[in-house]
């Protein structure tokens, strides 16, 4: 079951007009919210980021946070899996094609849920392969925009190279992955790029830094050079659906020992523990 503009219906029945500005211009923003044991994880933070994205494209939020919370709860109830990934999407609505904003048009609100499958045991034990790529996106990567063509092309480039993720560099500094945030471990310190306009402020990124602080992993938030990434002892990728995943090969070379490292093990365990404690609460 999906949600479209106020109604719940089976996915096959959902229709939007071809002049929707999401379809025509990619003029909209989205969120992906993980749901464990039927409870949305870090919902307030996802809704705050949604507001930031809507502000970034100058679109009024079509629902209050309590309305979002209620609709998300209903969508979770309408779908079977205990663990779900809720996709929420707002566009500037349907209007005659013209770049400038239309007046008096209602935003389109769409939500769907997919089963949430955390990284497999094999992925956690072996890690994943990544390639480096030039970050050729725009200067507002902090907005979770539905216009994802650069990310699509970058990730497809990674897939074509036999990898699962592209690690992006802007002027030889790490920004993020095509669909994830990236951390490096260098000289026993966990390094995270600063949350600026060059990356999406990941909800999982924040959780990982909170966990690092609480379990005593030394960390620094600062610009990270490509050279530091290429010589890191560990690389991690994070996202709401991939949680904390180790990267064990970059551009055909092993990362550190070529196996998931001790910082990954600690952060992964802490993440799982944190998730369970939040779900029990
Ligand atoms: N950066 C990009 C470009 C992303 O698409 C995503 C999530 N899909 C992330 C970072 C991670 O964000 P989050 O932890 O909130 O899922």
The radius of gyration computed from the alpha-carbon positions, rounded to a whole number of angstroms, is 19 Å
Helix percentage range? 25-40%
N-to-C terminal Cα separation, in Å?
27 Å
CATH level-4 homologous superfamily of the largest domain: D-amino Acid Aminotransferase, subunit A, domain 2
Shape: globular
The largest sheet is:
9 strands, mixed
What is the CATH architecture annotation of the largest domain? Alpha-Beta Barrel
Classification by helices and strands: alpha+beta
Mean pLDDT: 97
> Helix and strand string, N-terminal first?
EEHEEHHEEHEHEEEEHEHEEEH
- Catalogue the unreliable spans: none
> What is the number of beta strands?
15
Overview of this protein structure:
The chain folds into 2 domains: 2-115, 2-Layer Sandwich (D-amino Acid Aminotransferase, Chain A, domain 1), CATH 3.30.470; 121-280, D-amino Acid Aminotransferase, Chain A, domain 2. The chain is built from 8 helices and 15 strands. It has helices spanning 21-25, 43-56, 65-77, 121-126, 149-160, 203-215, 226-230, 262-280, and strands at residues 2-4, 7-9, 28-36, 39-40, 84-91, 108-115, 128-134, 165-170, 173-177, 181-186, 189-192, 219-221, 234-239, 243-250, 253-254. Strands 7, 8, 9, 10, 11, 12, 13, 14 and 15 form a 9-stranded mixed β-sheet that branches. Strands 2-1-6-5-3-4 form a 6-stranded antiparallel β-sheet. Strand 7 (128-134), helix 5 and strand 8 (165-170) form a beta-alpha-beta unit. The longest helix is centred in the C-terminal third of the chain and has 19 residues, at 262-280. The radius of gyration is 19 Å and the shape is globular. 4'-deoxy-4'-aminopyridoxal-5'-phosphate is lined by residues 32, 151, 176, 179-181, 200, 202-205, 238-240. The site of 4'-deoxy-4'-aminopyridoxal-5'-phosphate has 14 residues, from helix 6 and strand 13.
């Amino acid at each position: 079951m999906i949600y479209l503009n106020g109604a719940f219906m089976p996915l096959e029945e959902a229709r939007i007009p071809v002049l929707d500005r999401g379809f025509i211009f990619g003029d909209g923003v989205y969120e992906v919210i993980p749901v464990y044991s039927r409870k949305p994880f870090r919902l307030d933070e996802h809704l705050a980021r949604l507001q930031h994205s809507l502000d970034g494209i100058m679109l009024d939020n079509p629902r209050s946070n309590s309305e979002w919370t209620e609709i998300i709860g209903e969508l979770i109830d309408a779908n079977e899996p205990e663990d779900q990934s809720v996709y929420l999407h707002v566009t500037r609505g349907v209007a005659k094609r013209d770049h400038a904003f239309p007046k008096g048009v209602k935003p389109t609100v769409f939500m769907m849920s997919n089963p949430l499958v955390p990284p497999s045991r094999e992925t956690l034990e072996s890690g994943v392969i990544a390639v480096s790529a030039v970050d050729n996106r725009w200067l507002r990567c902090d907005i979770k925009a539905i216009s994802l063509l650069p990310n699509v092309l970058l990730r497809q480039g990674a897939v074509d190279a036999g990898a699962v993720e592209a690690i992006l560099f802007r002027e030889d500094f790490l920004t993020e992955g095509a669909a994830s945030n990236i951390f490096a471990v260098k000289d026993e310190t966990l390094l995270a790029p600063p949350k600026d306009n060059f990356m999406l402020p990941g909800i999982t990124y924040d959780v990982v830094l909170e966990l690092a602080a609480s379990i005593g992993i030394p960390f620094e938030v600062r610009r990270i050079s490509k050279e530091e990434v290429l010589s890191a002892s560990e690389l991690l990728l994070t996202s709401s659906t991939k949680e904390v995943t180790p990267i064990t090969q970059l551009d055909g070379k092993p990362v550190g020992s070529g196996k998931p490292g001790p910082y990954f093990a600690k952060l992964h365990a802490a993440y799982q523990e944190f998730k369970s404690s939040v779900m029990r609460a």
